[in-house]
Amino acid sequence: MPTSILIAIHGDGIVTSYCEYVRNHPEDEYNRLYHDQEYGYPLIDNNLLFERFILEINQAGLSWITILKKVVNFRRAYYGFDINRVAEFGEKDVDRLLHDPGIIRNKLKINAAIENAHRILSLCEDYGSFKGWLDAHHPHPLDNWTQLFKASFVFTGTEIVREFLVSTGYLPGAHDQDCPIYKKILILKPGWTIIIKSL
């Protein structure tokens, strides 16, 4: 269950399923579209994985709806989350991002995006891609994933790691089994199906 998304939505720590929330709040188009078209779908592209990782980092301490409303601005500001370009960001870019009202202007999170771009590129030298690195360590329980991410990246914690992995199909729990999106994702054979088969 996507607890960080739901806690951020409700603001009171009351957790229901994300699918139930979307069903009961049809007026929330941002969450509905994310739920229906992105959440839990396996990603292959390096830059898309990087984007999701950085968006999850930026969500820390904030509501997910805040991030969803700023996604277009984030993509513009971070040049489509092109890992190579972000890794080349310097002080002028940091200053530009700190003065961009369309994104989260947090220097720690901005620096984390740049540093993590460097680290992903380094991992790509050994694993071919960010996905290659993820696949090489899959499957892992969340605790092991968290330790691995903390050793490999900056500005990571259990919730950031969990939401990143659930949202990209590596861990189960994105959708209820009676949710129509569940069946759509199951056809794509996300990474979490390996975990289910091994139980």
List descriptors.
199 residues, mainly alpha, Endonuclease III, domain 1, 13 helices, globular
Low-confidence stretches: none
Q: Calculate Rg over CA atoms.
A: 16 Å
* Mean pLDDT across residues: 92
Helix content: 55-70%
Which sequence of SSEs, written as H and E, runs from N to C?
A: HHHHHHHHHHHHH
> Regarding CATH, which class?
Mainly Alpha
Question: Total number of helical segments?
Answer: 13
Report the oligomer. single chain
Portion in strands: under 5%
Count of individual domains: 1
Examine the coordinates and then state which fold CATH places here, giving the name of the CATH topology. Endonuclease III, domain 1
- Secondary structure class reads mainly alpha
CATH architecture: Orthogonal Bundle
Shape: globular
The overall strand count is 0
| N-end to C-end Cα span | 19 Å
By CATH, the superfamily comes out as Hypothetical protein, domain 2
Largest sheet: none
Layout of secondary structure:
Layout: H1 3-10, H2 18-24, H3 29-37, H4 46-59, H5 64-77, H6 83-87, H7 91-98, H8 107-127, H9 130-136, H10 142-152, H11 158-167, H12 180-187, H13 192-198
Helix pairs in contact: 4-5, 4-8, 4-11, 8-9
